[in-house]
Amino acid sequence: MKARLHYVKGHIGSEEQAMQSLASFRRYGWDVELVEGVTPDTIDETEFTSKILGGSRLEDFAAQDYRKFLVKKSCLFNNLRLMVDCVESNESMIFLEHDSICTANYEEFEFDEFCSLSYEYAFKEPTALAKYDWTPISLVKGVLPFCRTHPLQYYKNSIYKGSNMTPGTAAYAISPRGAMKVLDAVERNGIDQSDFLINSDVIKLDYLNPSPIRYANTNLNLSHTL
To answer: Where are the alpha helices (DSSP H) in the chain?
Structure first.
């Protein structure tokens, strides 16, 4: 399965983490391509022209902090680009961010639509979700559904309120069927912040256990500070 590792060109921290990340994946035999990510300075807003989802977090940013809105929209476009290519190639693909660190050899795995590859570490330091201090507990290995005790629910007043959300987009695999579901939801309902848009009302959420990918020790938090 091919993977794309996204980084911010010209940002020293992002470039350094991306090279560390790339080296870790190559060490374990993953097929990874380094990709320059979209930023507020490079975004082409005509690339995806769907409306903003009513009641969404992205709608709040558009009204309150337009620079941060463009940052979040740029992150979303990175995800949507990969999903378009996933559908067009009819092959599952892996989305990676610059702070993803590989810890295990690549092995083929079967999943339906979406599979988090860093779920075990998503609620631990240094992530922004560490406040939950939660870890999935299962002795079963392989692809599993998101846990019943999954602590992250969609809390904004959109049509997705109450659904489970993916805990960030640092590392996940998506199938053509899953990608089509997300793209259809964007066309039908509108765009949202990427980790809000990828939710259990839109797509089936699974994770790989144990997680083969952890996070870099430093969280650059570019989705808020870029």
So the answer is: 12-27, 57-64, 66-89, 176-189, 194-197, 222-225
Helix (H, G, I), strand (E, B) or coil at 97: strand
What's the pLDDT tens digit per position in 39-88?
999 999 899 999 999 999 999 999 999 999 999 999 999 999 999 999 99
Helix, strand, coil proportions of the chain in percent (round to 5)?
Answer: 35, 20, 45
Please, what are the domains in the chain? 2-225 (3.90.550)
Describe the crossing of helices 57-64 and 66-89 by its angle, rounded to 10 degrees. 140
Contact status, residue 104 vs residue 23, Cβ threshold 8 Å: no
| The residue type at 66 | Y
> Helices 66-89 and 176-189 sit at what angle, rounded to 10 degrees?
140
CA distances from 85 to 56, 93, 182 (A): 26, 9, 13
Residue reference for tokens 């092995």: 107
Secondary structure of residue 102 in the 3-state scheme = strand
pTM (two decimals): 0.96
Q: What's the rounded Cα separation, in Å, for the pair 171 and 174?
A: 10
Residues 6+ apart with CB under 8 A from 226: 8, 11, 39, 40, 71, 74
pLDDT-based confidence at 220, cuts 50/70/90?
confident
State yes or no: pLDDT of 115 exceeds 60.
yes
Report, as an integer, the average pLDDT of 122-145: 93
